[in-house]
Cytochrome c heme attachment protein (Nepenthes mirabilis), 131 residues
Amino acid sequence: MKKKSNILQRTSLFYVRNYYRSQIIQQLDQWSYRLISLGFTFLTIGILSGAVWANEAWGSYWNWDPKETWAFITWTIFAIYLHIRTNTNWQGANSAIVSSIGFLIIWICYFGVNLLGIGLHSYGSFTLIPN
């Protein structure tokens, strides 16, 4: 009797829907891992080349400017994400939470730091144009 109910459960629309949902979630997880890896590579290149440029422009590689600091925080969060993905016990929801935190920090880095307009990167701030 159990085999019949098991067969019915596996052929039901609910099982098929959950199977495809899990396949889509796994594909999205793989795509996010690939895109974050690519973005992490470009962020690393950007931070390193920015440090070389800063040494030529300001005489030091790193000044702990708000924009530099938040770029480093973003880099650190995504480095944590990539390390979490290497451990199979931490994959899934845990890595999704860390990548969501990284996404939030990117918004803070882009809007929050630019709205402050302080530090060496003040040329990138949003300014109000007086009438």
In short: The chain has four helices and no strands. Residues 27-116 form one domain.
